[in-house]
């Protein structure tokens, strides 16, 4: 392994699910110089792992061939997710053009790792209480090309084998008309996309009936404000775990009453086919696992409104381009992510059952679902 940049990178020891591929540094040795301009996020990710030393372990989950590059889908762990009591799973860059999600995630991981160096209480939680598993760039080929889809023109978040039960917006909800149009679903039944499979392997490796997992998937591009979306995308009726989601929302609002997120079901905005988190949640439930996904959808229309010239750059529709705004976005989600880490570390505070679950379900029903037929 090359260590010319300083410290070496620790690899995951646990290998149960997924292929054995060369480590991150070895993969990047082939193309590091060329990536600085086109995919600096991957370089930042490698640097973060080097600087973290033993705090972080990494694994190459898949290799994606695009143009003359071979790009890794990398997972990183803080703590030991096969032993921890609970797990926070974080994903970014599922849509390659939404770089800001990856950048926010890397900024938070950096602060988590930095705090491990001096705060013994903070560090202790990763001994056995909780583990963080992050895939900051799920779709490196799409990000290299500044595409929403992966290099094979498949929208990874329309790819899962689930059809919406109601009308979806034309094209945007997922389509199989033409591969080169955005939102193409691909053909899961014939060939599962490598990036999708990589994420599924990570979930399978670290899921267990005894280990609740909260997943946060970072996106950008929808609306004027930041949304925290509760599944499902395929139907309007509430998800089975809506009581726990409601309890989580109330816990968040009691602690941060002045927050500015719109926290509610995605189905209130639009439905779509093939949502990966619908699929992973339902699959987890069938296996007796608790996997509760959330999507953080950072509203980019405000960035565009304040800086209309962004309209002329495709990436500008999904990412803040003015430096002070970019910095503001990087810092504005740190509190939320800290909170979600604390929340999954204390699952009994909000993962509800029995009478409390019924009570929370009623509140959710009144707040979000009273107009359902
Ligand atoms: Zn997205």
Automatic annotation (TrEMBL):
GO terms for molecular function: metallocarboxypeptidase activity; zinc ion binding. GO terms for biological process: proteolysis. Residues 88-282 form the Peptidase M14 domain. Pfam families: Peptidase_M14. Signal peptide: none annotated. This is DUF2817 domain-containing protein. It comes from Spongiibacter nanhainus.
